[in-house]
Amino acid sequence: MPTLLTGLVPEAALTAEEFGDVPDAWIFPEEAAVLSRSADRRRREFATVRHCARLALTSLGRPAGPMVPGERGAPAWPEGVVGSMTHCEGYRAAAVSRRIDVAALGIDAEPHAPLPPGLLRRIASPGERARLTELSRARPALHWDRLFFSAKESVYKAWFPLTGTWLDFREAELVIDPNRQSFQARLLRAGHDEEGRPVRILHGRWRVGRRLVVTAVAHRVAAGVPGGAGAATASGRA
């Protein structure tokens, strides 16, 4: 069944989503252990987003084991699998793929509403803010600041598992294409994938619908380019 992520990730990536918490969503004991001091709301969203991840993994033909948050909150995925999860008010989703098809995935969802005052200045360069101002003037119905925030979240969610290094908001220069509903992030710090190839640019896509902003980044090695890296184009912190 199509999801909001359909068309934002490659065909090799499978997705699942929920627009509310699943009452009977279960979690493994290892996952429950990290929630010992969490509020009920956090427990419900944690369980539901993992419910989505397990549905996607099942569709991929992979067993659904514990997905315990590790370093920087990145969940553990089965061997040979890459994935990403996201949750916000009224939405939970996951995307997974075989690592041989996609090297890294990052997805994020946000409410389609303005960012809190002052946040954009802390996460965007002057050039990025100028471009967002132009977009807002051209298409004021879209909350470009929130889309920008979500896109940078997706960039980080793909970057960290791929390179194993931290990436600050200001260390990815983002350009949004309003017509193609895509974006490009130029990485301003050095990073290499597990094969030692440099990761310099990440590409993503975005969608606004059902009062949500959804973004996704998918990355894989460019075919026929020894030592190089390229972005996986789309077909058509949990």
pLDDT < 50 stretches: 223-237
Number of strands: 9
> Secondary-structure element order, as H and E?
EHHEEEHHHEEEEE
SS-derived structural category: alpha+beta
Mean pLDDT: 91
User: Biggest sheet, open or closed, and with what strands and sense?
Assistant: 6 strands, antiparallel
User: What spatial form do the alpha-carbon principal axes imply?
Assistant: globular
Strand content: 25-35%
Distance between the termini: 23 Å
CATH topology of the largest domain: Ribosomal Protein L22, Chain A
Q: How much helix, percentage-wise, in residues?
A: 25-40%
- CATH architecture classification name of the largest domain: Alpha-Beta Complex
- Summed up, the domain count is 2
State Rg.
Answer: 17 Å
Number of helices: 5
CATH class of the largest domain: Alpha Beta
Per-chain topology:
Layout: E1 14-18, H1 29-33, H2 40-60, E2 81-88, E3 91-98, E4 104-111, H3 119-123, H4 126-138, H5 144-163, E5 172-177, E6 182-187, E7 201-209, E8 212-220, E9 230-231
Antiparallel strand pairs: 1-3, 2-3, 4-8, 5-6, 6-7, 7-8, 8-9
Structure described in brief:
It contains five helices and nine strands. By secondary structure, it is α+β, with helices and mostly antiparallel strands.
Explain how this protein is built.
The chain has helices at residues 29-33, 40-60, 119-123, 126-138, 144-163, and strands spanning 14-18, 81-88, 91-98, 104-111, 172-177, 182-187, 201-209, 212-220, 230-231. Residues 223-237 have low confidence and may be disordered. The longest helix is centred in the first third of the chain and has 21 residues, at 40-60. The protein is of the alpha+beta class and 238 residues long. The chain is built from five helices and nine strands. Strands 4, 5, 6, 7, 8 and 9 form a six-stranded antiparallel β-sheet that branches. It has a three-stranded antiparallel β-sheet with strand order 1-3-2, with helices on one face. The two termini are 23 Å apart. The protein has two domains: 14-99, Alpha-Beta Complex (Ribosomal Protein L22, Chain A), CATH 3.90.470.20; 107-231, Ribosomal Protein L22, Chain A (Alpha-Beta Complex), CATH 3.90.470.
